Amino acid sequence: IISSTPITDLSSLGIPFERRGWWKTYPYQRLQILEFIDINTIQGVIWISGGIGFSALRTGHETTSLNNTLTIPTQFEVIVGPSGSKVNPNVQLSSQISLAGNRFKAIIDTWTYTLFDADPVSGNITISFIDDFGSSV
Hints:
By secondary structure, this protein is of the alpha+beta class. Helix content is about 15%, strand content about 35%. It is built from 2 helices and 6 strands. The protein has helices at about 25-40, 90-95; strands at about 45-50, 55-65, 70-80, 105-110, 115-120, 125-130. Strands 1-3-2-4 form a 4-stranded mixed beta sheet. The protein has a two-stranded antiparallel sheet with strand order 5-6. A hairpin with a 4-residue loop joins β2 and β3 (about 70-80). The two termini are about 25 Å apart.
């Protein structure tokens, strides 16, 4: 699923999640799509998003429904960028990054582009963040 902004609530990183057009401004629709994926046990969902000035890899999603907090472990989000744009200073300087929990497998605060290598036979996908020197970070 490709989205111009992350589905992940990034407030734990000190990044405002309430910007106009972001998923939190559409809480019902956000909850509806996350629950639909979970209820129908759709496996291998990868969200690809950007627009926030850093790259990251996150597993699972937590969202609050009317009755409880829903954890959806089968979804991943790859936040791409900031290829050619300014790196988000909130990420470079944030002490909260280490407090973000174990769901973030990588947070990259430098210029990168993201390379996806999908193998349709095995069903595997390799995600690499490539820096200015062509090295995987």
